[in-house]
Fold this sequence. Notes:
Elements: H1 5-21, H2 27-41, H3 46-73, H4 78-93
Helix pairs in contact: 1-2, 2-3
Amino acid sequence: MRNPWVFDGLFLLLIGYLIFRSTFLPRILGALIAFAGLGWLTLLAPPLANYLLPYIEVLGVLAEGSLMLWLLVMGVNAQHWQEQASAAGASLRT
Length: 94
């Protein structure tokens, strides 16, 4: 693999899946991040990547920028986080 963006694509694909499955962030953010990861993975096929590169870059900036803005403006629901953490801890003790 000559292209380091492929590793970013794998990372974004996994993070997108985790965000999509979580209840702390909107699912649309997870889907956007996962699609951006798939876009970066198209760099494994150079002819396709050369054709799609402008769209891949726009999707990547849109997805990662949306996640960044969401975390900066809205954050994570800390009360919901604590409720789930205490419920998970209680289920582990029984």
